Amino acid sequence: MSTDPHLSQHLKSLLIKHWGHSTFRPIQEDIILSVIAGKDTLALLPTGGGKSICYQVPAIAQEGLCIVVSPLIALMKDQVANLRQRGINAIAIMSGMNKYEIDVALDNCVYGKVKLLYLSPERLASELVQTRISKMNVNLLAVDEAHCISQWGYDFRPSYMQISALRKFIPGVPVLAVTATATADVQQDIIEKLEFTNHKLYKRSFERKNLSYVVLHEENKMERLIQVINGVKGSGIVYVRSRRRTREIAEYLQARGISASYYHAGLTADLRTQRQEQWMSGHTRIICCTNAFGMGIDKPNVRVVVHIELPDNLESYFQEAGRAGRDEKKAYSVLLYSKSDNLEMEHRYEVNFPPLAEIRSVYQSVANYCKLAQGAGLGAAFDFDMSEFCSVYKHNSLKAYSCLHTLELEGVIALTEAVFLPSRVHFTVRLEDLYRFQVDHPAIDPFIKLMLRSYEGLFDDFVRISESELAQRSKKTPQAVMQMLAELEQLGIIKYLPQKDVPQLVFLQPRLNAKSLNISAQNLHARKQRYLERMKKLLSYASRTDKCRSSMLLDYFGEHDNFRCGVCDVCIERNKLELSEIEYGRLVEEIDTLLADGGIPYDTLVKKISAVKSEKALRAVRWLIDNKQLLCSSELIITPAFHEA
């Protein structure tokens, strides 16, 4: 790979100019140089490891634009806003956008100076998008959250399977796949599904030395939560699974004098923005939230992340826990665990895999809700209010969501989260034609002039507007402003898109007869098995007290050559033995040998240990028994269980 010092200096100058950083983080520059050299590249970076820089810098360092595929609309929206603030022209095409708006955006990518185009994956199958991409000067195809392409992954998205087909429209363009959570199987799947050739793999260790992982076995979780928050100074996140619980826990904390608020996707856009900003600025100390909160939010000084309830898998846990301590200072990730969580996980397993009859019933209801005829609807997107849908068609919300998720995994539909899209306006006439219109319509002329003074770029692209601001400046009501905008659209002068804040449901296949809906029994069985395996791994992590938490997580992600962290709850208990790693290793090896021929009484075993002093041996054997590494029967210690650790 080229290590041209002039190129390296150029990349660093861009980093300083646009991001204010003087140096790259570990392996970032290697990844950037790899894609500039034209190599397909897989980059594995931990949460907060600076993945976006790896495609944003090469995008602006070269002629042309970078296409970024991302499943997270909120993240796309935030990144586009941040890039524009840094003087980099970026746009996003996502669910909820009008067809005309998409057309204008794609035209700007073909003929304009756009440097990054963000696309949601379900848009890739569109013939319009594919045709326009073939006309673009593309320098890089970046695949964010690349684990979504793998059926082995925890967050498989069938629409990601369209990405490799996109390569034929941009021959010779390298692909950069980035993810923070990929096991060895998933890594190989990414490489195969994206059809990598002559590829490079860059992997930064997922170890977080500043982060202490703690599992607290606790029945009274709320009181323990108070202890944890009071014991750790600074900002924090509390993750729960339901919207209702976010509010309940926030109010519980507030009643005990702790500055707290709550956040979930069901809140209005204004309220979500307000609460996020209050927490980011430090006015609110603790945010209680569902997993809708956190993606793309870069708050470096989070000191504690608490999970009140178990997430679905270790990948989700690792990603959410990793939002603590991004400033590389001491931070804590705490999981509150009780035996009842096992029953809750089993219930969740049952709910997540509904019977076929129920899936077909929900599909039929969705088709009716969207007023879609059989054979129609390929690629069509609809506003989709889950609460309203369940209320109208009398579906249980949890079961309905599971049915929709199954339909999504089968590539029948795609669901997106609710993201606020502000009102947008685009002038569709030429400037000289607008002038003639103003002369012919003097009553609305002052309002048109006000818009042109208030907003730039109205002739080039859709521009965000605020009806309330225009109302204030024109001394009219917001309703009157909306009426004038609608009138201008009817007269063919503008395209006006009122704001929206609802999820979208996209049909990836034409609407079928529900009885003809083909759900693969083989796929369903395989998904159930993988879900069960992940569930067992998570429960093992939560229940074990005999192995370093960090080591367990690193092992899960394929980093087997690791050492205990020394700062998790398990290691802290181990530290009380006052044994070095060498002494502990010798002790375990000697006990293994002593028990090879059968059980030994407790006192006899302690006396026979020569690897360490007797008082240390006594403490160590007792600790090994307490942590189920030595099993007892009557008066005998009979089974060494180190091999399972």
Helix content bin: 40-55%
Shape: globular
Low-confidence stretches: none
Mean pLDDT: 89
Decide which structural class fits the backbone: alpha/beta
Distance between the termini: 41 Å
Residue share in β-strands: 5-15%
Radius of gyration: 28 Å
Query: How many beta-strand elements?
Result: 22
Number of helices: 26
Q: How are the strands ordered across the major sheet?
A: 3-4-2-5-6-1-7
Largest sheet: 7 strands, parallel
In short:
This protein is of the alpha/beta class and 645 residues long. 45% of the residues lie in helices and 15% in strands.
Outline the secondary-structure elements.
Elements: H1 5-19, H2 28-36, E1 41-44, H3 53-61, E2 65-69, H4 73-85, E3 90-93, H5 99-111, E4 116-119, H6 127-135, E5 138-143, H7 163-166, E6 175-179, H8 184-193, E7 200-203, E8 211-217, H9 221-231, E9 235-239, H10 243-255, E10 260-263, H11 269-281, E11 286-289, E12 302-307, H12 314-321, E13 331-337, H13 340-352, H14 356-369, E14 381-383, H15 386-393, H16 397-409, E15 413-415, E16 424-427, H17 431-440, H18 445-454, E17 463-464, H19 467-474, H20 478-490, E18 494-497, E19 504-507, H21 521-543, H22 549-556, H23 569-575, H24 581-594, E20 600-601, H25 602-608, H26 614-626, E21 630-633, E22 636-640
Parallel strand pairs: 1-6, 1-7, 2-4, 2-5, 3-4, 5-6, 8-13, 9-11, 9-12, 10-11, 12-13
Antiparallel strand pairs: 14-19, 15-19, 16-17, 16-18, 20-22, 21-22
